[in-house]
Design goal:
Elements: E1 2-12, E2 18-28, E3 32-36, H1 43-50, E4 58-63, E5 66-67, H2 76-81, E6 83-86, H3 98-108, H4 113-126, H5 142-154, E7 160-164, H6 172-189, E8 192-196, H7 200-206, E9 209-214, E10 217-222
Parallel strand pairs: 3-8, 3-9, 6-7, 7-8
Antiparallel strand pairs: 1-2, 1-4, 4-5, 9-10
Helix pairs in contact: 3-4, 3-5, 4-5, 5-6
The chain binds adenosine-5'-diphosphate.
Adenosine-5'-diphosphate binds next to helix 1.
């Protein structure tokens, strides 16, 4: 089943920059896909369209059967509920514990405490951080903070986990650990994962599908791809 289907998609920003041009692709349920490309090639724009942070100028972007290009603003929260999103900067709430940071998303949708607790514990177990649930973010390493963000993103059991440069601020060893956790989530929970990255070593090691963007155009789509970006900077 196709989880994502992008057809003839364009994104032209108000300043006239074409960030995405005639993009066509589909992603099946359960895939793990890297999105690579030089800085400015359109990776973030593509990722942002999936969770409707940006709206395509033309064409369609179906996520779980919903055309996000046509989705009313008032329905965007419904789409986001079905997605998990992990960013480069951790965006944890500093005054809340690890447990509370993960529980927060479920409280916000009105779930009862007795239902929240087992879900939060399970999500923290999935990222190997159950023993740190009473810690505060500033008591954790960068890698641990990113693991909390992953737990927060998967706690509502989304079908799709979107990661925008999740290892961008982390050392190589820790980055490998983070991607290992994402790989485990993909294999064990069946979560579809889309990850934009600059990390050559990780892409080459994982041998997953790789989408290459070049100036907003899909320049490569390789089933067991490697990192082939020629950075000019
Ligand atoms: P990447 O994530 O690969 O670095 P982006 O999607 O951020 O690429 O950017 C693609 C192009 O769109 C770049 O030329 C960038 O300058 C431009 N761009 C990105 N966001 C905006 C915006 N909000 N307004 C105008 N131009 C933008």
């Amino acid at each position: 089943m196709k989880l994502i289907e992008v057809k003839n998609c364009y994104k032209v920003y108000n300043n006239g920059v074409t960030a995405i041009a005639d993009l066509n692709l589909s992603i099946e349920k359960g895939e793990f896909v890297f999105v690579i490309g030089a800085s400015g090639s359109g990776k973030s724009t593509f990722i942002k369209m999936l969770y409707r942070e940006e709206k395509p100028t033309n064409g369609s972007v179906f996520v779980g059967g919903i055309n996000v290009a046509k989705l009313r603003n008032s329905k965007v929260f419904k789409l986001r509920r079905k997605l998990g999103i992990v960013f480069q900067d951790f965006k944890l709430l500093p005054k809340l514990t690890v447990y509370e940071n993960v529980a927060f998303a479920l409280e916000a949708i009105g779930m009862h405490n007795k239902d929240i607790r087992p879900k939060v514990i399970k999500a923290l177990e999935n990222v190997g951080l159950k023993d740190k649930m009473r810690s505060f973010p500033n008591q954790l390493s960068g890698g641990e903070q990113q693991r909390v963000c992953i737990a927060r993103a998967i706690v509502n059991e989304p079908r799709l986990l979107i990661c925008d440069e999740p290892t961008g601020n982390l050392d190589p060893d820790i980055s490998r650990e983070i991607v290992g956790i994402l790989d485990k989530i993909n294999r064990e929970l069946g979560t579809t994962i889309i990850m934009a990255t600059h990390d050559r070593d990780i892409v080459n090691k994982m041998k997953k599908r790789v989408l290459l963007l070049d100036n907003g155009v899909l320049a490569g789509d390789d089933k067991k791809g490697s990192y082939v970006v020629h950075e000019s900077n």
